[in-house]
Amino acid sequence: xxxxxxPNGLAAAIELARAGLSVLVREAREEVGGAAKSLPxxxxxxxxxxxxxxxxxxxxxxxxxxxxxxxxxxxxxxxPAPLAHPFDDGAxxxxxxxxATTAATLGRSGGSYADILEPLVRGWPGFATEILAxxxxxxxxxxxxxxxxxxxxxxxxxxRTLGGRxxxxxxxxAAHSGLALDRPATAAIGLVLCxxxxxxxxxxxxxxxxxLSEAMASYLGSLGATIEVGAPVDRLDAxxxxxxxxxxxxxxxxxxxxxxxxxxxxxxxxxxFRYGVGVFxxxxxxxxxxxxxxxxCRRAATIHLGGAADEIIAASRAAPNGTIAERPxxxxxxxxxxxxxxxxxxxHTAWAYCHVPNGAPTDMxxxxxxxxxxxxxxxRNTILARNRLAPRDLEALxxxxxxxxxxxxxxxxxxxxFRPVRRMNPYxxxxxxxYLCSASTPPGGGVHGMCGxxxxxxALRDLGIxxx
Length: 468
Description:
The protein is α/β, with parallel strands linked by helices. About 35% of the residues lie in helices and about 15% in strands.
């Protein structure tokens, strides 16, 4: 049994089915995908991704990249540049697939940037396998040591080391964490995302984020598994007899449906799990492409809006401290420049979000659109319709997004390796045959399927089954 058909639940189900087990997946919503789906949020004919959308860790996943998902309708769109970062002077820097090309656009700070990123990019397949796993004895200790030397620093400290526009490019990538960038180990997420951009790009599924989930569900069905949608699970006792149950749920949902079966100490630990900041998100239907001043912004699907590194670092402190940034750091995606299947002819879509305190009701529409207008004058004139998703709206659409937290829990240092509780195997629970496989387990947030894969491998080992 797998409860929840998000990317991690589907990955777990696939791994169990590949081992020859019969698998039943139950999903509360009427469609699979969890936070990887597409919905018509604005006008007829416009396809939007209400949650996640750009997937460097999916295309670079040691597990998802091995599945035959292309045979089930998945096609990746790779924009010419993974990422662009505009500045107030009308120029922009971009993260290109080539480190050398990127370094050349960064001026004097390009050399330091290349020195730090090049080993991680060159060793990406092994590096990805190491970092997208629970705590373990490393197979590439030298590479991990080089990574750890920089990763354990704060993102603000590493940004100061880089200097110049490399600092802004890096700080923007690190800010995806939702953490204050002067905290220890916040450099790790920036390093991983920048390395992924060079190694595998920052692509997205053609036709919408839901195509990834649909392809995974189709492949799972071809293995003989059954998926039931519109089938919420309120209590474990309501499930049919099974040899193993895997929960693609965060601690709050686990306590709700399984708390009476779990030891009190374990339940208390789950209740102490820290959720991260929330997200306020806008989706737009547009009459034309966003009128960026910097031409580099027309080559990338992902745009970071925050100006210089110091401004990004200052904005990063607001949401974790329970306040609202007047000039928030904004992450924007513009798919239709590279995927015309998402809109009527000649039209476009875009989305953007910023971090806010968990569950905050503040409407960030004006602040987000002001940041876009800052780097693309006339942007507001292109808006045909908009859809707002505040943190509680996101949670209403997907119960795992508690308070708008899109990472399955705060990615702070103490919750990276030991999440959701301090336990040698984070996927197992004190109840025999009951496992956790959501983003609240290592390696945490991001669409990569590795939480589900590792949970399934744990269950298979406990059952004494090797994958066929």
